Amino acid sequence: MAHELPKLPWADNALEPHISAETISFHYGKHHNAYLTKLNAAIPGTEYESMTLEETIMKSEGGLFNNAAQVWNHSFYWNCLAPNAGGAATGAVAEKINAKWGSFEKFQEDFTNAAATNFGSGWTWLVEEGGELEIFNTANADTPMKHGKKALMTIDVWEHAYYVDYRNARPNYIEAFWKLVNWDFVNSNL
User: Fold this and answer.
1) What proportions of the chain, in percent to the nearest 5, are helix, strand and coil?
2) Domain Manganese/iron superoxide dismutase N-terminal spans what residues (predicted)?
3) Is residue 160 marked as binding?
């Protein structure tokens, strides 16, 4: 079963001025698509041929895992973003954030710091495990499901997520991320 590149939930330019259509063209059109192409090239004739993406992630290692996880991570990330979104958390996730961190501002500060200091390439996640929220950093293609955690939200901190718009200024990209968070999607993951 060949995996397919999911359609973006918005137009390429919908996240401007925070994330440009040019960034989306490279990030989604080139990087995300390349992970998918490599994954699909690696699975024919293997036990992974009939597995779902999640099953492949949980069972595989090495290059196959890296490509499968990056396909899943990116597909999840796109849904974490939306035009005319952002601001403070809403709904049930806001209640859980306030219960855990005391305020949205404290959560935002801690998440921002985790994303800014996540060394090298990787992802910073808001996850849930056993009903508790946690900020969780992963390196490279690693994903929370491999650690028994449920992903609620993520920011991609690989340079390809921000180099076109922000060059090497990851903190500026993280600041822009907060103007795009799709809290409806985050809540749907609870």
Assistant:
1) 55, 15, 35
2) 3-82
3) yes
